From TrEMBL:
Prenyltransferase that catalyzes in vivo the transfer of the heptaprenyl moiety of heptaprenyl pyrophosphate (HepPP; 35 carbon atoms) to the C3 hydroxyl of sn-glycerol-1-phosphate (G1P), producing heptaprenylglyceryl phosphate (HepGP). This reaction is an ether-bond-formation step in the biosynthesis of archaea-type G1P-based membrane lipids found in Bacillales. GO terms for molecular function: heptaprenylglyceryl phosphate synthase activity; magnesium ion binding. Pfam families: PcrB (PF01884). SUPFAM superfamilies: FMN-linked oxidoreductases. This is Heptaprenylglyceryl phosphate synthase. InterPro entries: GGGP/HepGP_synthase_I, GGGP/HepGP_synthase_sf, GGGP_HepGP_synthase. Sn-glycerol 1-phosphate binds at K11, Y158, V159, E160, Y161, S162, G163, G188, G208, N209. Pathway: Membrane lipid metabolism; glycerophospholipid metabolism. It comes from the Bacteria. Its cofactor is Mg(2+).
Amino acid sequence: MNINEWKHMFKLDPAKEISDEDLDKVCESGTDAIIVGGTDDVTLDGVLDLLSRIRRAHMVPVVLEISNEEALTPGFDYYFVPLVLNSKEKKYVMDIQQKAIKEYIDMMEYSEVYFEGYCILNPEAKAFQHTNCELPETDDVKAYAYMAEHVFHLPIFYVEYSGIYGDTEVVREVKAELDKTKLFYGGGIETPEQAKEMKEHADAIIVGNSIYTNLKQALKTVDAVKRE
């Protein structure tokens, strides 16, 4: 399946524990892809361990979201490189990414690398604080989305509420700014109803935390989105 057709992804944090049984359920859920990524304590060993466990018996596409260049490794189907557009520091928009590409360009075939414009909208989130973000108004987020498509020509714009369920009206207005750039939504999706609601506006949703808090409900989000 082409990445542009993805509707649902699970995000697994290599710093969090998940049993083999639960990991099998996630991989066999029918999700379009598994994203491996996190903010704290992401190590090469943790990434490699999770990748090998996923690969052991599953064919689901696996993505490494590059938040830490030391944890970059070959073996993934895709690589997502976040550009945190509402960060107050240029290094999180461009410098870290340039350094990683310079160091590892031979490892990653360009066709497998997707740059994503990130906008983090939860000031309590570790990712928001780690990347020194500024909380934007809705018009600011729409302007970032416009820049993602028309200035940077990015394939993905990622609205990230990271741990809380976001504002559907914001997501709807942001989607209206985009044509070719795909809108990904992540944050606080815990139920099939929430998954379906956000998918009405976003091209694809990402479910993360609820894997570790209520796996049964998290697994139901796949059908809720793909039954459309």
